[in-house]
Amino acid sequence: MENWNDLKLVLAIARAGTLGGGATALGVNHSTAFRRLNTLEEKLGVRLFERLPGGVYQTTTEGERVATTAERVETEADALSREVGGRDQRLTGALRVTSSETLAYSVLTEQLARFREAHPGIVVELVVDNRVLSLSRREADIALRVTRPKEPDLFGRKLADIAWAIYGAPSLGPLDDIAGRDFIGWGAEVTGIAAADWLGETIEPRHIVYRANSLINQFTAAKAGIGYAVLPCYLGDIEPGLVRAGAGPVIELTRELWIVTHADLKKTARVRAFFDIVGDGLVAQSSLFSGHRTA
């Protein structure tokens, strides 16, 4: 196991549970991962994974030992990277940032333009992903999240409260009562999203006339007049093709917007600059996030 790439391959497949998922995580194609894994198993003389129905790859005892060792090596390598990177005082280089699709679609891009104007030597790579990427594994340097960081090795700052409300096209008319009205909802497989849970508890299934697992698509469908949608106010209030329906924000859906990095990186010049410019810029939009300012 002298090749670190072999360890990374085993760890990626073990985490994904499939060969294809491991290949995607490493940025290689399926056939390359298949060939590399077979070569590694032949070289070691052991099976690292049991091939199960449905394309599932389950670690053997030997495979589990290799994956555990690979994770330890990865943890040490990431810690070294953060320690060295945390001393970087250059305002040049790359900065990997992750945010949700709705934030990237609306108010974030304007702040990134301000950051680019102030620091043209820094290249921002924006990863639009609704998953919580690992800052410890350097999947991102900075994350904009709607949850307060709980991990002790993370450093964050609250930027605003995020309110959600019901929106619809002007052609749908006023919404005095949601009973019997058509709504846009989430796919049946979506779990763990407060707005999806609220719709499931509040709106009868027969009145969910359209479903999408993308909030931006729900936003677009609402503009088209398909039905009412529950959207964050920073998205709905700035769209002239939508009007806020009902009495106001849905209080139980209120969330917090945080800017977060790893504690080892908080003194890095690029990270500090991003916190100052983009973080302060988003704080200045707090009335839009909280639903107290409409377009």
Automatic annotation (TrEMBL):
GO terms for biological process: DNA-templated transcription. Residues 1-59 form the HTH lysR-type domain. Keywords: DNA-binding, Transcription, Transcription regulation. Coiled coil: none annotated. InterPro entries: LysR-type_TF_proteobact-type, LysR_HTH_N, LysR_subst-bd, WH-like_DNA-bd_sf, WH_DNA-bd_sf. PROSITE patterns: HTH_LYSR (PS50931). One of its GO terms (molecular function) is sequence-specific DNA binding. Belongs to the LysR transcriptional regulatory family. This is LysR family transcriptional regulator. It comes from Devosia insulae DS-56.
